[in-house]
Write a structure and sequence with these properties.
The chain is α/β, with parallel strands linked by helices and 213 residues long. 41% of the residues lie in helices and 20% in strands. It is built from 8 helices and 10 strands. The strands form 2 sheets. A 6-stranded parallel sheet has the order 1-10-7-4-2-3, sandwiched between helices. It starts with a helix and ends in a 6-residue tail after the last strand. The model has no long low-confidence stretch (mean pLDDT 95).
Length: 213
């Protein structure tokens, strides 16, 4: 019963979030599950598009990259780069892609996006570069306001991601942000997307499942 009530609550909340996104010149969509989210995402990516992506457990869980490779799109596989020079070249190619795939580390109920990054390649593509940004966001990431969203991103998402990546940062031992200045920090860049200056560029698919962190 609790799960049913939570899912119903998420449906209602998604309406508020989508209205908030629209007021900020972004588009919002609701998917009841991962399969629906995958279909919406594929519909948003035209055939023939070049497609880049940032590191995202949500995108991986959705199977979106595999679905794109089986279709008529060109996926720019950043993990194939073997040297820092090759990696930089791939990141520059992604910056000019038709579509960029990502999740958001957190969101506010009124439609702001909160993201934290290490090198900055992901947040820079959210800001500018690729012609279209398609985000897939599990409803657990929706937080009441900007302060709550930032705390969620720093104290829940970032430690979990550090543990996943096997990095020797303090949060992997405490489970919460220690505000470190480690050279291995993946919390170097903080991005709050309050408004999109480019209408129709950012598309956010809200999923009534826990996807990612």
């Amino acid at each position: 019963m609790r799960d049913v009530n939570l899912r119903n609550r998420n449906r209602l909340l998604s309406e508020r979030v989508i209205k908030g996104l629209e007021s900020r010149h972004m588009h919002g969509y609701y998917a009841e599950n991962a399969d629906e989210a995958l279909k919406i995402a594929l519909d948003l990516i035209p055939e023939g598009s070049s497609v880049g992506y940032g590191g995202s457990m949500t995108i991986d869980a959705l199977g979106l990259k595999e679905a794109l490779e089986n279709g008529n799109r060109r996926l720019i596989r950043r993990e194939l780069a073997k040297t820092p020079e090759e990696q930089r070249a791939v990141y520059k190619e992604i910056y000019g892609a038709d579509v960029f795939l990502s999740s958001s580390n957190a969101m506010t109920e009124d439609g702001m996006l909160v993201n934290i990054d290490g090198s900055g390649n992901r947040v820079s593509c959210i800001c500018f570069g690729p012609s279209k940004v398609v985000m897939v966001v599990g409803m657990q990431k929706i937080q009441k306001d900007l302060d709550s969203a930032m705390k969620y991103a720093r104290n829940t998402v970032a430690p979990a991601n550090n543990i996943h990546l096997g990095l020797p940062n303090p949060c992997t031992k405490t489970g919460t942000c220690m505000n470190c200045l480690s050279p291995d920090s993946i919390c170097s860049q903080f991005l709050v997307t309050r408004v999109s200056r480019f209408p129709d560029r950012i598309h956010v698919i809200l999923v009534n499942e826990e996807l990612g962190y």
